[in-house]
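quick one, 197 residues, struct below
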Amino acid sequence: MLIERGDNAISQKIRRMSGEDSWADLLFRSKRLVSLKVRAEEIDFERVEVFIADINKKTRGAFAEFTVEHMIYVLYEDFLVQIRENLNEEKVDEETVTMKDTVNGLLRMRNVYFPRKKGETAIRKRWALMEIRLKRETAQRGRVFLYDANTVFPEFEMSLEELLSILFCDFVSQLRRGNQKDLVRTLIDKFSFHDFE
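---
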């Protein structure tokens, strides 16, 4: 599917992500949005800006309003969709995922991207925080999932900001591996077939 500048559907989806669907949304958005901080290396925020520029080049500017904050939202929304549609008590097929699988996956990624081992000399990274805003109800979905995961697995503790940071760092890791062409196609497909409500 070819998407180009002037494609109003893309602009509308981006505005809905930001909580800017109408004038009333703009006036009352501070009540409907929560501020969160995403942690990553400084260069990784720039890396995603370059990725977004490449998307704009490929789509002739259809994603001109798209930002790193929107990218984080897309990654988070994708995580929520996977949980909502595929989480099950037990593994029934390739698509389903259990709470245990999800928790173990998140813990594994946290150990890769944000190691907490004491006594070892870690490579010095230049960390940066990016403040983003999510719709309150979208943030609540993640918090409820994390609470439920902690209830089932008491040793599992993770904040929503930590989850967002992990999802972002995992995406950047895929970019570093050279999967840019597939990632561009996946993002365009998400915008073609998902509403981001």
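The CA atoms of residues 37 and 184 lie 25 Å apart.
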